[in-house]
Amino acid sequence: MADMRDLIENFPEQISATVTDLQKKNGSLHQEASSGFIPNGVVIIGMGGSGIGGAIASDILSRDSEIPVVANSDYLIPGWVSNNTLVLACSYSGNTEETIEAVHSAHKKGATIAVITSGGLLGALAEKHNWPLVSMPGGQPPRSQFGRSFIGLAWTLKQFGCFSEKMYSELEATSKSTAAALKSVSSKAESLADLVVGKSILMYSDTCVGSIATRWRQQLNENSKLLVNTQMFPEMNHNELVGWDSGNESDVVLIIRTPEDHPRTQFRMNVCSEIFREFGADVVIIDAEGDNQMQRLMYLIQLGDMLSLLLAERAGIDPVDITNIERLKAELSTLK
Questions:
Q1: N or C: lower Cβ tally within 10 Å for the chain?
Q2: So what's the pLDDT on residue 2?
């Protein structure tokens, strides 16, 4: 298993290698993707670091897609899944029990299933049923393989007409933009680490990029071993904002802001920032950088990953360690 710093710093190379691998597959599309099958809905199954790509894809596509694209992080799948549904199963290990159970349910309903994995039970199912498959190298923490899993997911969606050629081309090109941004991202992450260390972190974003805030929280949870609160605008204005009566100087607020945010939501962010500061909290606005949505997406992923790494290193903890998850899995294995 590679060092987490190496994995995060090699993010651009991970993107580039995956793009190259997938370009080799373009000449041999799977039957379902090339036979004109048009889904009436998409369900993307996955948990944790394997599932976050589905949540991000759902956010990206939700405003313009003519069909529902839903991220599903559970044992159960939506009742509307049928033989007209495309189900994408994402599990880095291929052994995630929630994902395996959900895939079995989708298969029973006759859904068209495609798989993104490094192997395991899910890989074996894909081979058994001849499902479209994007394979990844195994042996690393799933959360460290976002570049591979997300691009594999986007590529698969593109084969079924659910992810535009333009967006995918822009996504392919992020190997260059993330490489060019690595030094500035590292510097920005250092500055952010100075501001948040030792404080209670509360993260906010527009709903349209809520999955990015979730990715930051997940990385801070797993790499930095921190509890982090994440909520979305404008929903938080109808509940959590009142809870700020108990906010204080021990809190730090990180607000992720992108050009895709609703204009009125951006105004809400400005007003709420004033309220947060009145209660003593520090407020940091994180503006996504890049020439297009795909560049901004990968920039934010890169920045959040680097911040989580730096906080782990400053605390002297192992960012790879997931002892609590391993304990839970061991307990689950005792169930019949």
A1: C
A2: 72
- Any idea which of 27-41, 113-127, 169-183, 266-280 has the lowest mean pLDDT? 27-41
Q: Which of 32, 98, 222, 225 is catalytic?
A: 222
| pLDDT mean over 292-296 | 98
Name the residue ranges covered by the structural domains of the chain.
4-172, 184-315
Answer yes or no: 172 catalytic. Answer: no
Radius of gyration of the chain (CA): 20
What is the value of pTM for the model shown? 0.96
Average pLDDT of the chain?
Answer: 95
From 104, 129, 176, 329, active-site residue? 329
From the number of C-beta atoms within 10 Å of its C-beta (0-12, 13-18, 19+), residue 249 rates as exposed
Q: Do domains 4-172 and 184-315 have the same CATH topology?
A: yes
Secondary-structure class of domain 184-315 per CATH? alpha beta
The answer on pLDDT for 31 being more than 80 is no
- List the catalytic residue out of 128, 183, 238, 336: 238
9 is catalytic: no
Nearest to 61 by CA among 217, 209, 230: 209
- Residue 329 among the catalytic residues: yes
What residue has token string 């993260």? 203
Q: Rounded to 10 degrees, what is the CA torsion of 73, 76, 77, 82?
A: 150
